Queue: 2 jobs
Job 1
Amino acid sequence: MDKICILDMGSQYTHLIARRIREHGVYSEILPNDVSINELKQHNPIGIILSGGPSSVYEENSPQLTEDFFTYTSNKRIPVLGICYGFHLIIHQLGGKIKPFSNKEYGKTKLEILQPAQLLNSLEKEEIVWMSHGDQAESMPPGFEVLAKTDTSPIAAYANEDLKLYGVQFHPEVIHTKKGDVILENFIDRIVHAKKEWKLGNWIETAIEKIRNEVGLKDRVILGLSGGVDSSVVALLLQKAIGNRLHCIFVNNGVLRKNEEFEVQETFQKVLNFENFHYVDAEDLFLERLKNVDDPEEKRRIIGHTFIEVFENKTLELEKTHPDIRYLAQGTIYPDRVETSATSNVSAKIKSHHNLTLPDNMMLKIIEPLKDLYKDEVRKIGMELGLPSSIIKRHPFPGPGLAIRIIGPIEKEKLYILREADEILIEEIKKAGIYDSLWQAFCVFLPLKTVGIMGDFRTYEYICSIRVVESLDVMTANFAKLDWELLEKIGTRIINEVKGINRVVYDISNKPPSTIEYE
Ligand code: XMP
């Protein structure tokens, strides 16, 4: 299958570029900027994109391409498109000049097209693009032609047809660049001539076939099911491939949302007919270990380790009746494996990541059928496999659950309060018809007591913070500008219906500098 590789220069948009390329039907993968030519050869890319990044090309230790990079791409006639930092890097490494620019260009800018060539084909004479840079191209090496400029950047896009090198100073991958998709399509169709072979329909059949070949006709597979979209899609895929030789373990860790344990059981046992669904109630064990713990990282560590222990014990128990359990399936997806260095200016690292690392003595082989997919692709596959939309469209819920939404130590009473408040929030958000357009909506328990008045009585109760965010890529998020009346209704209901809360606040922080979760 034709593949376009994206070399990561540290931009927060690197994954977005990869997703956009896939949306155009071409498979894409992210590699570190200093990938060796030997490794690159193994990927056999038909085109390469150099991402943006926060550094300046002339700074010491800024991401650079290996010396033989351009020899390799020009010998093999592989087109290279540089975006922002990548745009600078091509010029810089081939002998042109990049200089700091006193007026940082940030946000929407008017681009004037001087000569569309293939890259800017079918664009108007003027287009709105999204810029974010502090450097500028002053001079280009021979053979480069300027395709476009802005009021402040005399060189805003270029092409060198002989060497098949192209660059844009702006970001075609973000939606604020109106014709960004056209530019990426021009690169794919007119310059790279990539075959559009990345289709999810074929993906399902191939994945099922692969699982069958790997697991064979006898062995069994164990899967930790969280009820989230990734592990649920893995479960359905495995059920299709090997039927009831799949064993799902669902652990109640005591920090789930209200009724979550019942809903997940109902869906998998009754709606999806999973025969080997094993529910483990470990609430008491988790809450005992979390007692008096207030450090967020310590909470995460305890929950992670306890989960592994509970999961391992259940697996060992199942192995007594099914000694042919030989595989462990995981819902790892592509962004879990490929970590981009969003803010640092050191070169990006590709790291292998497992949500769950079992002790070696379990000797289970790992299967990760979703490891090359993005979340939106996983959702589409879930839809085709018949996963209920309530699971597909569910907002992300962190592994450590409500433990990181209760500030300070966790107690049953606080969990009860938070669950009740959270249920009201989600119910109202769904009623207002906006659930699907939000990234996450949840309540946070603030262990601060303030004074209130209920009827004739003075109250002294806790605060509930409402966090509702919109996001496209989780790296950045904005607080949702909810309707005042909706907020008022939610706040009033929580205060009236949830004993223990007498004040509700709305969180108006964006990420960055805040994070989505509180801990
Ligand atoms: P932050 O708070 O870093 O969250 O802006 C980004 C996204 O990650 C989720 N999140 C977690 N998910 N384990 C998880 O499985 C965790 O420890 C964790 N912490 C944050 C968060 O819900 C959001 O979607």
Job 2
Amino acid sequence: METETETQGRTFDVARVRKDFPVLEQTVHGKPLVYLDNAATSQKPLAVIQAEEQFYLRDNSNIHRGVHELSERATRAYETARIKAQEFLGAKESREIIFVRGTTEAVNLVAQTYGRAHTGPGDEILITAMEHHSNIVPWQILCEEKGARLKVAPVNDRGELELEELIRLMSGKTRIVAVAHVSNVLGTINPVRAIVEAAHARGIPALVDGAQAAPHLPVNVRELDCDFYAFSGHKVYGPTGIGVLYGKAERLEAMPPYQGGGDMIASVSFEKTTYNTLPYKFEAGTPNIAAGVGLGAALDYVNAIGIGKAAEYEAELLDYATGELERIPGLRIIGTAREKAAVISFEMEGIHPHDVGTVLDQEGVAVRTGHHCAQPLMDRFGVPATTRASFAFYNTKEEVDALVRGLMKVKEVLG
Ligand code: C6P
């Protein structure tokens, strides 16, 4: 008789994929590790680990500065990663790819440059109720500084964005619309193409927080037509400390620089400094070069897997896990959008999420508990915290079964 994994294997060879992730082959508290905290950070395939290692073993040098062989190699590797990111996002030009530390820095960059240049007293910044703190707080800082107002579009009880309300909130005072492509708590996939279109029809630029989308959905910034798109390397099977801000060239050209320092200048004198061309104008100082190289390897890896195929497989896992969790008495799933990525937040009647997570950990099952950096969304659903299981293409239905067994244990111990 074939196992569940073998059945899945006809379309997606998860057993083979898992071999690429050495970290998955371990026991935790004497139980096989079941890693379901992928929305926080995903695990890294050997190809990524080796790319970073090889960089430090062979090519380590600073970039854009030296004429020597190592510096040229390092520069080539870093700039090749930029082209890979360009292709991954379907951007028109590689100079539209700004390397940053992650999604958080990308949003702060836009708020502090585009935002500061275009926002004044009485203006509005429009976001949604399902944003991560990193797509809320940078805008609040801007609003506070400029005397502007943060407007928030609501979500319904299923955790879907109320699109008509969002569009109704767009006004002549709106300076930017900033929305998550996929919610890190609810898994909701937002209709970003429609949002961008509505914003543009009113002359408003749009930023998309793609932190939870880039690892799970095919993304094409030219089709979305968004002005800015941000994602983090560490969620897309790459290293921490590197991420991407995509911006349309004409927007980036018109923006003031973010930070001052080396590499972002064309010339410096005490009287006047002129700035470098794109993308370097926004990349002051020595970046995380090895992580950039690792991100390039991660994008190669994801392309080889095929993000569309991975998305189909993850959708299958989501269906299975949703069905299994719904059968557990007293468990309520928060976030039941029709368009959903493989993230399941839930609460268990009478049991604090922190205790759920602690018991699951003893069973080898890693989930995240807490407010998931989305406190306003917790308030919207009237909960202080949730337990969240988030899946990647290396997870299996057997691991979903292990989660369910762990939750039965939680009920036995704490229920
Ligand atoms: N969410 C989670 O467990 P950084 O930390 O810069 O790589 O990504 C920030 C971020 C921005 N937007 C969304 C939608 C996110 O989910 C995250 C990170 C993690 O949900 C860590 S809090």
